[in-house]
Request: fold
Amino acid sequence: MTDTPTGGEVGRIDGRLIYDGRRIRLSVDRVRFPDGSEGELEMIRHPGAAVVLPVFGAPGEADPEVALIRQYRYAAGGYIYEVPAGVPDPADPDWETCARRELEEETGLRAGKLRYLTRIYTTPGFTDEVIHLFLATELTQGATRHERDEFMDVHRLRFSRVLEMVREGEIVDGKSLCAILYTAQFVLGASAPPAS
Reply:
């Protein structure tokens, strides 16, 4: 028995555009599934984004400081903590350039070193958005450049405190959780503080 349908290739057959906005495109696509059946799916197409966790201090430091932003998000109903992130500019040749630019624009920090961590699909049930995660070190001061609809401030926190915030539900942004927990597990080797 094979998973490949006999009636053609798996994937998009055709679609109709519903909305073409500043950041996203919404379409309803006719698709062929792995069993050969067909159906319609709503699909949000997104250019992707870069996320950067800025880490201060010397390599190997047990509990370094990191920078988070506290940003107003209409969809979340108020301010939430996040790592710096943003979508690419047309002039960005690669994700590293996007990450460096977004880090400085949102925090005023420049990365001497930028390490690629991994990539994540944010919600593959309805969007093709991929976010690329980076770790920034050897930080120096630059200049912030917030967009007109960005309201945020920068917070320097010990990484142990950030892990407490994750555990206690103070940090709920998915991309930020991924960057923080990936760094804790695979880069810094940190563990969450004991429950109080």
